[in-house]
Amino acid sequence: MIKKQIKFSIHKSIKNIYSIVIFIFSISLVFSQNKNSPFIYVLGNVQDAGLPHIGCESKICLDAFNEKKQYYVTSIALIDKENHEFSLFDVTPNITEQLLMINKDIFNQFILPKNIFITHAHIGHYTGLMYFGREALGSKGIKVNVLPRMYDFISNNGPWSQLVKLGNISLNEINFRDNIEINAHLSVIPIQVPHRDEFSETSAFLIKGPNKTALFLPDIDKWSKWSISLIEILENVDYAFIDASFYTNDEINRNIDEIPHPLVIETMDLLDELPSYQKDKVYFIHMNHTNQMLDQNSDITRDVLNKGFNIARLGQKFYL
Ligand SMILES: [Zn+2]
Ligand SMILES: [Zn+2]
């Protein structure tokens, strides 16, 4: 009996020591991540035209206006606190507020991005560049990484060409599949995606950190048109910020064929069979003002979360 008790208490104390070690390890991991690890910072989750949306009289748009709720156009920053710098993915019409967010929440001072990466030439993704020009900040030489068609588009069309001519921005031509090193621990790889490429090609970005990788893919026509399988790419990343423009095809009064996107219900169907840890990597982003996933309390939001997926929200941080 006594032998049994001793055995039990030894077993119990080993278990306790084990839990303490695990606890200390997790705490130190959290602290080391907070102190040193670079992270992705969500600066907006709305489709190009933002929220409130022009001409929209629905509750979510009026509430956003009346209550001055913050909803910004889709963009993420890669924050590297250790080196006191950051890179910006897409430059939205909300760039003023978004740089203020980075100032107030991260660095406690106004700093400009060391690198900008642009996915494509639709209004929510690059027009914020105008705020770097003579009429606004008058910046000097901000490095803007663009793919070849986007390079020509900005270089040869006003008002963007003036930013180049005056040296407000400095264009750097990149190509799909290039491995662009930001520093020894961070790199970015542009990947081509099919989209309405009227003025430029369209890119997604793989963002590689010291421990984790994220995919930023705010716009695509349909998953089936892509040469890469979404399921395969999910296996190779830790976070996937992907196009959630529309939840279903009956939410807008326009011909949805003119503006093709993978509907969120289609994406969830496509990924339905995946194990939960794979679904958990998905963070839906770039939601149209009609998409009720923007409302944290909607039934649709609850449904998406219950199915094991996530929705990107303003100010979230993801350590890499
Ligand atoms: Zn867009
Ligand atoms: Zn687009």
List keywords for this structure.
single chain, seven-stranded mixed beta sheet, 14 strands, binds zinc ion
Enumerate the spans where pLDDT stays under 50 for 5 or more consecutive residues: none
Q: Helix share of residues?
A: 25-40%
- The shape, in one word, is globular
What is the radius of gyration? 22 Å
Succession of helices and strands: HEHEEHEHEHHEEEEEHEHHEHEE
Number of strands: 14
Q: Strand sequence of the main sheet, in spatial order? A: 6-5-4-3-2-1-14
Q: Mean pLDDT, as a whole number?
A: 91
The major β-sheet equals: 7 strands, mixed
Can you put this structure into words, describing what you see?
The chain is of the alpha/beta class and 320 residues long. It is 31% helix and 20% strand. The protein has helices at residues 2-36, 59-66, 95-107, 123-126, 148-156, 160-165, 230-235, 264-270, 276-279, 299-306, and strands spanning 39-44, 75-80, 85-89, 115-117, 142-146, 169-173, 180-181, 187-192, 203-208, 213-217, 239-243, 282-285, 310-311, 317-319. A seven-stranded mixed beta sheet has the order 6-5-4-3-2-1-14. It has a seven-stranded mixed beta sheet with strand order 7-8-9-10-11-12-13, covered by helices on one side. The longest helix has 35 residues, at 2-36. It is globular. It binds zinc ion (2 copies). Residues 47-48, 122, 124-125, 218-219, 286 line the site of one zinc ion.
